Batch of 2 targets.
Target 1
Amino acid sequence: MATEEPQYQATLQQGRFEVRDYPALIAAQVKVTGERGEAISAGFRLLANYIFGGNERSQSIAMTAPVVQMPSNDHTITLSSPVTQSEDNNAWLIRFMMPRSYSLDTLPKPNDQRVHLVTLPPSRFAVVRFSGLGKEPSIEQNTAELISYLKDHNLRAVGPPLLARYNPPWTVWFLRRNEIMLPVQVEA
């Protein structure tokens, strides 16, 4: 059975690059500190505990993709897609998107106070897809390529880049799907 991913409308597609419009989404998220690799692992474990029954109803919730990691900061950053991570003074926000069949009212309350359920507003992202382990050099290179793509298409980023990972850790490295996502301004 395929892992559910957030639905989106691609408004522009060119090779590995896309501009996507996402509807409002619900996410479970946690803020963690540490270097990128440690933070994604710690955040993943906390969120996995929630969806595997660590909630008031001991209810399992289907895993979705991607897992998003992004720098954590005081202002709200829209994010849609699997799990993302971002960095702000070594603090990261890790997110799992919740399955479409749930609303904030129907999701069970997390047992762990560090896990928060949030509604993410509709948003637009410029995205570049790449394979591999998603190590820093690759993340930096793909982020630079995405920023160049934005400039070439007169798009303006309105937030930090997000790292979205779609595959379980046992997936062979060259088959792994990753994305760098940059929230972009929606034209009026």
Target 2
Amino acid sequence: MWVVSGLSGAGKATALAALARSGVETVDNLPAPLLGAFVALRRERVAAVVVDARRAEGVRELDAVDGASVLFLDARDDVLLRRLSESTQPHPVGDVGSLPAAVAAERDLLGGLRSIADVVIDTSDLTPEELGRRVVETIEPPSSPDGRAALICTVSSFGFKYGPPVEADWVVDSRFLRNPFWVPELRPLTGLDPAVHDFVWDQPDAREFVDRLSAVLTWTLERAADAGRTRLHLAVGCTGGRHRSVVLASEIAARLGEEGVATTLRHRDVHRPDPR
């Protein structure tokens, strides 16, 4: 059982449509006081219910959901404001005044739900297709041969100048390595290009970083699987998310794949234009 919540404009309708297409039982806009009874219903497969600011009664005090996991959809304020300005639907707390004030009020209202969320997805830079796929993978992950939900490790790269991914469980910093950005012929390239890969990977500290991190991550994943967890997200950061972090995230994902770990690799900022 999953409770799906999040801010207006963060993509709840898109998520719910993707879940319905995948065959997940879905209920939209359930009042928070009815949540306990709905979770307690017997069902044969996974279900998802949306609880958000449209029915504010009881939401602010919702600091635990027994028997269910919580998925929270978030986005940067500038993205929310742009999406909401294009919407014809009234904001659920729009009576507070301006649109920025409504976004702030909704963040406060849903703060308890976000604080207990098992998974937070930042939808700021996701297409509707990517968001739908991410939500379905979260709520109905593939099963392992023994029938348990398989543990999936996500390894991502990002740029600290744009902020760490809000959904990451671990955040590690690769900015101690020499930066290809300061090599003129490498600056316009990315960590997906062989020349940048070789520049980073030829540094002994880069290889030791991957060796040490992969070892502790594999150890952690084994114990997380025994504890019933189904996902873990490691985010590797560098300054702009285009060079060092891309190489290291790719190498870590490849190492985990060789060890039989179901791994998803993402590069959040690799295609951002070079501001210089």
